[in-house]
Design a protein that fits this description.
Chain lengths: 481, 301
Amino acid sequence: MSDITNSELDRRSLLRRTAAVGFASIPAVGMLSACVGGGGDEENEQATGTKSADNPLGIDPKAGIEIVIFDGGLGTKYATDVDTPMYTKKWPESKVTYNATEQIATTIKPRLNAGNAPDMINNSGADMMDFGAIVKAGQAADLTDLFAAPSFDVEGKTVGETLVPGAIEQGTYDVEGGRKPFAVNYSFTVFGLYYNKKLFEKNGWTAPTTWADFTALCDKIKAAGITPFAYAGANASYYMVRAIMTSAAKIGTEQVLKDLDNLKPGAWQAPAIKQAAEAWGQIGAKYMNKSFLGLRHTEVQLQQNQDKVAIYPCGSWLENEQAASITPNFEYAVMPYPSVTASDQLPATAINAAAGEIYFASTKGKNVQGGKEYLRVMLSKAAALEFTKLTKSLTVVAGAADGQTISPGLTSGNDMLSKAGKDVFMGYLWDTWYKKMNDASLEAVNALMFNGGDAQKFCDTMEKVAQEVAKDSSISKNTRA
Amino acid sequence: MRHGKYPFIIGFLAVPVALYAIFVVGAYLQMFRLSLTDWTGYGTFKDIGFDNFVKLWNDPVIWTALRHNAYLLLVMPLATIAIALLFAFLLNVGGGSKGGMTRGVWGSKVYRVVFFFPQLLALALVAVIFQRVYGPDKSGMINGLLPDSWEPWLFLADENWALTCILIVLVWQAVGFYVVLFSAGMGSIGQEIYEAAALDGANRITLFFKITMPLLWGNIQVAWIYLGIAAFDAFALVNIMTVNQGGPNNSTQVLSMQIYLNAFKYSQAGYASAIGVVLFFLALSFAWLTLRVTRRDSVEA
């Protein structure tokens, strides 16, 4: 999510980076090698203490910790005003050294490679580090003991038991010796079709549950002179990828997506994927125009706020991101993706919701256990609630924000989540595991949506890329069960 | 005097040479070294010989990028130099001569400043501005100026024209600097030469091709090399302006973008370094070839 919420920062930091890259880009490549440090398999000295019921992670109460927070769309207040005070209250002698940056990779990567990293790192934003590569290089700490430790403020439960399903899985990677969790994906995003509740009420439009209803609604919206559906092809095509993936999972269950993640041959040719691509391709051909291919997410989202676009596929960060553009006539609401066929395996209420925003403890820090303890504090119910209040984002701590009224969009998302019941699926991970495949999907989905909706071509292109990735030994692989 | 010469020279040279050695030569050496490894950018790496270069040879996207760089290399310097020469000529000589002094067209002093404006803007700003100029719907500057009944032009969203849109921005941004460079060059051409030619009945076109161009040859050569190297880059514009960083459908993909994507997004720093090595040799051979091919006997002034 941070990619989008922080896109303005992205642009700003880009200005600076471009200035640094300057005339010829070649020296820039040289620069990256400035952080070649062998990467060190050598163990650095770690502060440790004695494990006890009060100190389940066995931290040294006197050793300080260093944390780095990404200064972006979520702000840093939750860390400085909530998490750190809670940590210091529990461990008064452990000094918290805090830094915030917009440029995670630029500041942290050299330190990881040099073996003197901060203990807890928030890896996020446009300049985030490839987390899979960090795990592979042994630079992220195994968090098994954190998730098995008792919760900070929920009696009788471990940290892992207080989280929403799929939260740990999202940060789990294949390493030597099995699958282990390495990241806390802290924020929890629900995905769906966002619309202006007031506009819909004014026109008597209702949220469709079947595809026939959906296209009928689109016809009505079009007749009213509004673009029924849109996404930004220039930099936010992955919203559309997610739409197709979600529909595919509803047609053929999450297994369809797991097969994609596992690079199973023929996975992209599965009927569910093709049906989903076909259905959405038709929406693209009938209800969008080509100019959206050249627009950015901010431009399309603004058009929606001005009621020029009716339905927009996005995640629950949208409302916070658009806060400045919302007028009194606009109130965000969200609906699940309509069923594509009558024989969809998941009900129309099923939704995709996923954990995001990586926090990890670094093995190259001086106080790894302390870093994990900080994460345990963050995963407390009290800290999670404050986070939601400050950022209008849900967290992976289950039910932490229940009964709170924070904003209409968030409430609508929370309703959708509770209506979905057990039919909430985590989605897919191939886009973060295999960046190359992700980039290919952005191009493929744009071709599908703007060039006439050739679903077979979409499946063929993606199948080819997936098999190339599978064969490329230089790309480290992950699997999902 | 002689006594203090070496400490003096060394004192002045040591710092720049050290900086150059560490941040340029050192970086290049590391790049050459890394191009032979499978380094992801994190942790340790192992040597894999020339595998990266084999992979590069077989990578269709690299060839697409190379073709686009070649297109920029052919058109960008030519267009920029032609436009800059024309403007510089108009600013300096275009107004004809009066009282034995050649002069520029009316208002040339103002134009001279205005032409330089684009050069003052950071390239990234230029990119953001032109993104709006090229807006693919009615909110775009150009489309906003077109009659309402016209279908909006897609510009960067059109596979066939996206790269040309980038090219136009590159030229627009570069022209000002070369106008100034050529103006300075023209300023150093003696008035008596123009005067003599004018006496022989030469018109403005003849003046330009027979007098100005040959005497400016050194400047043009330098401009050609600088612009050529800039054409190998184009990173900032492609990164900021284009659909999906190099799209749609790789239609604006360039080598520098491929380096960036592989190094920072795909965690293939070794492979990115290999592309860097290729780019290094391409730029080097371009500069060498340009100097070779354009070498002329200097015109006696």
